[in-house]
Design a protein that fits this description.
Layout (H helix, E strand, L loop, with lengths): L7 H11 L13 H12 L5 H10 L10 H46 L12 E10 L12 E7 L2 E4 L10 E9 L7 E7 L5 E7 L10 E8 L5 E13 L2 H34 L3 H7 L32 H8 L17 H24 L8 H26 L2 H21 L34
Antiparallel strand pairs: 1-4, 1-8, 2-3, 2-5, 5-6, 7-8
Helix pairs in contact: 1-4, 4-5, 8-9, 8-10, 9-10
Length: 460
């Protein structure tokens, strides 16, 4: 960063000039509220609290949780130096990362020209490296409890043995073994044996497919006996299989890209914090960046301790309870009446329409006027009104059927029920109807009406 270097004395002098507008009695009794409010005024907008809180936490406090302007200046200079140091380190790291990435790109071009891959997708000269072998909690030998263990490694017809270890239960071998791999189909087999009788203490098998990322893998594997039954002990292996140097260098380049991205994000974060720290102080910005500082007019900000609510363009108006009742009172218009063209039932249809209109006009206003206080949602009163109308209509029809002669009003009433059911279906109301017979006439179905009254008298 090509910025002029300011001494601590110069920054202290400039910051004291910036605090000239702060009342003198607050210089020695600086509260967090007064500090952040003053920074808001100098910034012309709310100061970045993520930076402000960090600065306030680093300031020494008096017993009454107040501080001083001099203490703020001290912490400010310290924070500015730390952020500038982090930005400089990030710049150095980015230069180093870009250089290493460029070197890896050059190696990748050379490898692509020289690498030869077989039918298995494995390059010539592919190697599997096994290192840092160790075991934990091995079982003892059945013949000699002090027999020294060793590990036997085998893969694609190649065989290596470690040296015997004097540690009988938790041995370790800091040795490195390299296998030449041509296909990658075979597994790596590791057997733990005794050095004297070659007694099997446990074995494990590792598929090379888990090493396809070509990265170094350090993992513990459980041991089994010769029948595949888990036995006591585990073995740790450090493995790496490089089957394509071109792909390996490509993965390295991707890692450098990730490092560069993360380091650049950290650098931008440090720069944002530094800009937020310097934003309230025009003299500091002008000293570091001549001609680039932005001088904002001081703005009096309300106290941060007061709760602030954003202004609404169209604030809701307060509605009184009587106005709310008038607004939410439901209105139910009478459903339209259909004219049925069948001349046979013209009079009966007119009579049914008359019943329906009378009931609708009589009961619907009653249901609306009985709305409780406070008013309920319109959907609820729609359901109550429909249920009330259904109840009174069914009662009226039933009384009519019980008192009338069959031929006079039974057929018109039945037609009226069908007419009424159609209107209920438009209101999404489902009604289930059934026939009612009295117990004493249930066996003589042709001789009773819907109310259970006999209509044909039997001869004695």
């Amino acid at each position: 960063m090509n910025t002029p270097k300011l001494t601590n004395e110069e920054r202290e002098r400039l910051l004291k000039q910036e605090f000239a507008q702060l009342p003198s009695e607050q210089w020695g009794k600086l509260t967090s509220e007064s500090l952040f409010g003053y920074l808001d005024m100098k910034t012309g907008r709310p100061f970045d609290m993520s930076v402000g809180i960090q600065v306030w936490e680093q300031m020494h406090k008096n017993p009454d949780e107040t501080s001083t302007v001099d203490e703020f200046i001290r912490v400010y200079i310290q924070a500015e130096d730390i952020l500038r140091s982090k930005i400089q380190n990030a710049d150095n790291n980015l230069v180093d990362y870009h250089a290493k990435r460029k070197e890896a790109m050059m190696k990748l071009e050379e490898i692509k020209q020289a690498e030869v891959v077989n039918l298995y997708g494995v390059m010539e000269g592919s190697t599997l490296t096994v290192a840092d072998i160790s075991c934990h909690n091995l079982r003892q030998s059945s013949f000699n409890q002090r027999a020294m263990p060793l590990v036997s490694l085998e893969c694609e017809g190649q065989h290596f043995d470690t040296s015997p270890s004097t540690n009988f239960q938790n041995p370790a071998w800091p040795e490195v073994f390299v296998f030449q791999i041509s296909s990658g189909i075979d597994d790596l087999k590791a057997k733990v044996l005794t050095s004297e009788r070659q007694e099997l203490l446990g074995q494990s098998s590792v598929k090379l497919g888990i090493l396809r990322d070509q990265q170094k893998l350090e993992e513990w594997f459980d041991l089994v006996d010769q029948n595949g039954v888990p036995t006591r002990g585990r073995i740790r292996l450090t493995l790496q299989w490089v089957y394509s140097k071109a792909k390996y260098m490509g993965e390295i380049i991707k890692k450098w890209d990730q490092h560069i991205k993360l380091q650049d994000e950290e650098k931008q974060e440090y720069k944002r914090d530094l800009e937020a720290l310097q934003e309230p102080f025009y003299l500091i910005q002008e000293a570091y960046y001549p001609g680039q500082a932005i001088k904002r007019p001081p703005t009096i900000q309300p106290s941060r301790m007061q709760t602030q609510y954003p202004a609404q363009e169209n604030p809701p108006q307060q509605i009184m309870p009587d106005q709310m009742q008038q607004q939410q009172q439901p209105y139910f218009p009478p459903p339209p009446m259909n004219e049925y063209p069948n001349p046979m039932y013209h009079n009966q249809v007119s009579k049914g329409d008359e019943y329906y209109n009378n009931l609708t006009n009589h009961f619907a206003p009653m249901a609306v006027s009985r709305a409780p206080e406070p008013p309920e949602p319109a959907e609820k009163w729609q359901r109550i009104t429909n249920a009330t109308m259904i109840f009174y209509v069914l009662v009226a029809v039933t009384i009519n059927l019980l008192r009338a002669d069959f031929l006079d009003l039974v057929v018109p009433s039945l037609y009226f029920l069908g007419h009424f059911m159609e209107k209920l279906s438009r209101m999404n109301v489902v009604v289930i109807c059934c026939l009612l017979y009295t117990s004493d006439a249930a066996d003589d179905l042709l001789c009773v009406d819907l109310g259970g009254r006999r209509i044909i008298k039997k001869k004695k």
